Amino acid sequence: MLAFIFGVRRTLRENKELKEKISSLEVELRAEREKTERIMLAMADRVLTAAGCFGLPKEVTQPKAAPVKLAAPESLVSEAYLNAVREDGIARGKSSAEIDLMIERLKRGESVMPEFDREDFILPN
Question: What pTM, to 2 d.p., does this model score?
Answer without folding.
Answer: 0.42
